[in-house]
Design goal:
Layout lengths: L13 E5 L28 H13 L4 E5 L9 H9 L6 E6 L8 H5 L4 E7 L5 H8 L4 H13 L3 E8 L8 H7 L6 E6 L17 H9 L4 E4 L8 E5 L5 E5 L12 E4 L4 E3 L8 E2 H6 L4 H12 L6 H6 L10 H4 L2
Parallel strand pairs: 1-2, 1-10, 2-3, 3-4, 4-5, 5-6, 6-9
Antiparallel strand pairs: 7-8, 8-9, 10-11, 11-12
Helix pairs in contact: 1-9
Bound molecules: S-adenosylmethionine and iron/sulfur cluster (SF4).
């Protein structure tokens, strides 16, 4: 049982770790066209530091880690890091979120890593031109190839689709249709203002309710009972092989059962996506902290976990949310 229990009785068993702030794409909802100011390499956590932080967290009861970024596969030797992390016998699952543009040649290696179970592939359009407009890079064929390979692989595949007014809302039902013959979970994500001051004007807010209404114009959906800590509300459709889900990332109706913490690529500990970072773990360990010191620290930081994302946002000292998701680790 997790020793990491917050002051609302929530057991923390899941950590999201951004392995880099670098990315090969420039998604318009995530960063400006010219990219974000990346930090000097020495400010990023090393893989050894990441391994150690995860090891200590698993000794406190964390069972799952999601590796994200930036784009995790941009970081040199990321696949070796997956192997290294697999040696942590206290970890049940290592999951990955990726844009899929650099991974097709690694899929068979990843499939052989016992603890790597789930891959979330971000794909916001099924149309190459629209995809290029959204990501500002021309990599749709490679991402779609990755999608097809992952769908055939033994890995559990989810597609992440950020619903963007004026860009891909007309494709919501196309994505749902994809689940008819493909064993995939398509998850629509409410767009959040974490765009690295990309100043994207959001004409309309596509909330869970609105996305669900759009789906219901064509499909009859039935809600599926999800795991308590699930980030999405999930649905099935008769005779569809796959499922669909909606992540209320912005309207935040899922905070009650949150079991997650985050560590950014520079080692900032975050209790909530919407807080502005509560502690720099990198400096703490580079200044000689022992594993016992780290444990004590984690146990006390968890007690400060805010009840929900609205409270976390209100407590921010650095002003409105505007940092890029690639620095936070989505
Ligand atoms: N580069 C990888 C990718 O795109 O899958 C991993 C990092 S990315 C920050 C993680 C997830 O956050 C992606 O699914 C992405 O679409 C999502 N994301 C990024 N910015 C977002 C925003 N402003 N609102 C909602 N989701 C966002
Ligand atoms: Fe890169 Fe992922 Fe952000 Fe797109 S969403 S710019 S792929 S980090």
């Amino acid at each position: 049982m997790s020793k990491l229990t917050d002051s609302f009785g929530r057991r923390i068993e899941y950590v999201r770790l951004a392995v880099t702030d670098r990315c090969n794409l420039r998604c318009q909802y995530c960063m400006p066209a010219h990219g974000i100011d990346i930090v000097p390499r020495q400010e990023l956590l090393t893989f050894k530091e990441m391994y150690r932080l995860i090891r200590v967290l698993t000794e406190l009861g964390v069972k799952k880690v999601r590796l994200t970024g930036g784009e995790p596969f941009v970081r040199k030797d990321f696949v070796d890091f997956l192997e290294m992390l697999s040696f942590n016998d206290l970890l049940d699952e290592i999951n990955i979120t990726t844009n899929g543009a650099l991974i097709s040649q690694h899929i068979s290696t990843i499939e052989n890593l016992e603890k790597v179970k789930k891959i979330n592939l971000s794909i916001d359009s099924l149309n190459a031109d629209k995809f290029a407009k959204i990501t500002r890079r021309d990599v749709f064929p490679e991402v779609y190839k990755t999608f097809e390979l992952l769908e055939k692989s033994s890995l559990d595949l989810k597609l992440n689709v950020v619903v963007q007014s004026g860009f891909n809302t007309d494709e919501i039902t196309d994505f749902v249709r994809l689940t008819k013959d493909k064993n995939v979970a398509v998850r629509f994500i409410e767009e959040m203002p974490f765009n690295g001051k990309g100043q994207r004007e959001m004409k309309e807010n596509w909330t869970l309710k609105k996305i669900l209404e759009e789906i219901k114009t064509e499909f009859i959906v039935e809600e599926i009972q999800s795991e308590k800590s699930s980030t999405s509300r999930n649905y099935k459709i008769d005779n569809h092989l796959g499922t669909i889900g909606i992540i209320p990332a912005f309207t935040r109706t899922i905070c009650n059962d949150c079991n997650r913490i985050r560590i950014t690529s520079t080692g900032t500990f975050k209790n909530c996506l919407f807080d502005d970072g509560v502690f720099n773990l990198r400096d703490f360990i580079r200044n000689g902290a022992s594993n016992e010191d780290l444990k004590e620290l984690f146990l006390s930081l968890i007690k400060e976990k805010p009840e929900n994302g609205f409270i976390a946002e209100a407590n921010r000292k650095k002003g409105n949310v505007s940092e890029s998701m690639s620095t936070i680790g989505g």
